[in-house]
Each structure stands twice: as structure tokens, then as C-alpha cells.
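Ticket closed. Logging final result for NLP1-9 GAF domain-containing protein.
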Amino acid sequence: QIHSEGRHAVYQEISEILRAVCETHKLPIAQTWLPCLHNGSGHEEILVADTTPAAAATSDHISLFTRDAPFYVSDPRFVGFHHACADHSLDQGQGVAGKAFASYKPCFISDVKNYLIEEYPLVHHARYFKLGGAVAIRLRSSITGAEDYVLEFFMPAEIDSAGGAALLTSISATMQRASRSLRALSAEELRHE
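Final structure:
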């Protein structure tokens, strides 16, 4: 019960952050990807799992899903993209969210439409909805401990590297102002996991 209440509080905080970032930076859509550990049976999943290296070592692989996770759509033309994402998962390293999850570092791509299908299984949806650049940031909440969340933000157009770096800095600042418990992991914490 306590864990469920904590997760509800974190989801509320994430929803506020997604809205603040989209409204401040005029972004059409943002969503949250949650890690999932798969064990040897191939069917069991531990949703929003402890994904520290010790916990991950006992699973076959980690994937990410956005079904039932917080999202924000400021432009209704993009709600179909979120629905398409909710029907699929990403493996570690796939798409901008998978790369941010695998590296523990914020990730930026100038145009998601340039991915190959093997690199980003949702690329055909991104092309259909004419999405551009994207940023993803892996965060952890002090409320839920070792549960991580990847926040993914899309731009309506392609953006160059300099513009992407500036946008990432601006998004990070907006997130820090709106956040109460969520934060990126420090290099020191990563060494001790």
C-alpha cells in the first residue's frame, strides 16, 4: 500500500513536469517510459522494477513500456502517436528513450525519423506523425527508491546539435524547478550500484 501511494505521488509529479516542460518549450508531446525486468519464464514481468545492475543480473533482459505511465499531449494531433507507443515496448538502447535508459545520460537526437526500424521500432509512427527531434532523460525518485523513469520529449521539427544541446539544458532547468523528488543519478551513485 505504501509503495503504491509513493508511485502515485511520483506519477503525479511526473505529470506536472511533463506539462510544465511542454508548455514552457512549446513541445507537442511528452511521455514516460518505465523499465520492466523479464525473468526466465518469458512471460513474467516486474513492472517499474528495481533496475540496478544487481537486480538486472537476475533477469533475461530489460525493456521499456509507456502503457499506463504519465504522458502529456499539448497538440491533439499527436495523441495517436502516444497510443501507438503504448502498444509497444522498447529494448534497452532502442530509440532516444532506450539510449537514455541504457547510458544513464540525457540523450538527444536531431530527427527521430532518421532511425532505422531496428534502432527504433516505432520509427514508422514517428514518420507518420511527422515528429522531429527528441530528448530523453532517465530519472530516479527519492520516494520510490531504485525505480527509474525515462521522460521523453518530442519536437515538432528537426533540430540541429547546437539547438538540441540548448534545448536539453533548458528542459533540464524547467524539470529541476518543477521537481520535488525526481533527479538524475550522479556519477558517484552509478559507481556504487
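Helices lie at 2-25, 53-56, 79-86, 95-103, 123-128, 161-178, 187-192. No further action required.
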